[in-house]
Design goal:
The protein is α+β, with helices and mostly antiparallel strands. It is built from two helices and eleven strands; from the N terminus they run E-H-E-E-E-E-E-E-H-E-E-E-E. The radius of gyration is 16 Å and the shape is globular.
């Protein structure tokens, strides 16, 4: 997230700590370069955006302010049960032609894991993860809504592709 507002360094984001722990754990297990969530909060409050990237502070946009947590900070929080996921090597891609060369079932495996991560976050929350490709300008993005009210969306660079309902 490229936000121009100054960020405060904090040691906790309170009720969002389990989301931070879940995204960080998912990032490490899956080999993603970034894991994000849009999380509903109390009525009247804007959703929070939690952004966990490799080797970077964790950024939480609370709407009225942005805070950072050190990536390796110990939080007194348990994540929800996380999906089984394995890291895969960077996908070979041709962004111009929207082609991805991956191990058989690789994209579906990661899409299912992101869908399950969103489900673990609950409600109408959204989970998104980006994975490395052969083109640094075109990471593979996978976005899913917890309640499955919308299909999974794949992105390759700036191009988005809504998948068929029920996939994978």
């Amino acid at each position: 997230m490229a936000d121009e507002r100054p960020a405060d360094l904090v040691a906790s984001v309170g009720p969002l700590d389990p989301v931070v722990v879940a995204l960080r754990e998912f990032l490490h297990r899956s080999g993603a370069v970034r894991a994000m969530a849009v999380v509903d909060r109390e009525p009247g409050e804007r959703p929070a955006v939690v952004d966990c990237a490799r080797l970077a502070p964790i950024e939480v946009d609370l709407g009225d302010r942005v805070v950072h947590l050190p990536h390796s900070i110990e939080l007194d929080a348990q994540p929800p049960p996380l999906p089984e996921v394995r890291g895969l090597p960077a996908f070979e891609v041709d962004a111009e032609r929207a082609e991805i060369a991956a191990p058989l079932g690789g994209v579906a495996h990661l899409a299912g894991a992101v869908r399950d991560l969103a489900g673990a976050l609950g409600g109408r929350n959204v989970a998104m993860a980006q994975f490395a490709t052969s083109d640094p300008q075109a990471p593979l993005g996978i976005t899913a809504r917890a309640d499955a009210s919308e299909p999974i969306v794949l992105s390759l660079g700036l191009q988005e592709y809504s998948m068929d309902p029920g996939w994978p």
